[in-house]
Amino acid sequence: MSKNRRIYWSLLAVTVGISAGCGGKKPADTKSATPVSVAVQVSTAPAVTGSIQETAFVTGTLTALNDVTVGAKSAGRLVGLYKREGDAVTAGEIVAQIDPTDAQAQLRQASAALAQQETNV
Predict the structure, then answer these.
(1) How far is 119 from 116, CA to CA, in rounded Å?
(2) Per-residue confidence of the chain (121 residues) as pLDDT tens digits?
(3) Cα dist. 64→10, 21, 68, 88, 94 in Å?
(4) Contacts with 75 (C-beta within 8 Å, 6 or more apart), sequence order
């Protein structure tokens, strides 16, 4: 190989190498080699024991799991109402009390009528 050809190929290789190394673009998101420190002010507090209260204000419709119709065996004037609509009750619990005066008067009349029938027999 002649000396001129060797120089030609050497120069061509160097030119291609330089062009390849310098022709590309740097990525836009490259970061500098030295990290930047940013001071952030924080505050601390000692740990405490306590309860957490969370309040939520919402709108909607509440529905009962069970609906029960309550009725009395006899009619009368109420002298006591121990529960309100929506209160929880258990079986056998007294919800209201009816004035016993009318029922007691009917019992006395029935007892008197029975006693009279027994004497007539």
Answers:
(1) 5
(2) 567 777 777 777 777 667 666 655 665 555 556 777 888 888 999 988 888 888 889 899 988 888 878 777 888 888 999 988 888 888 888 888 999 998 899 999 999 999 999 988 7
(3) 93, 78, 10, 11, 21
(4) 98
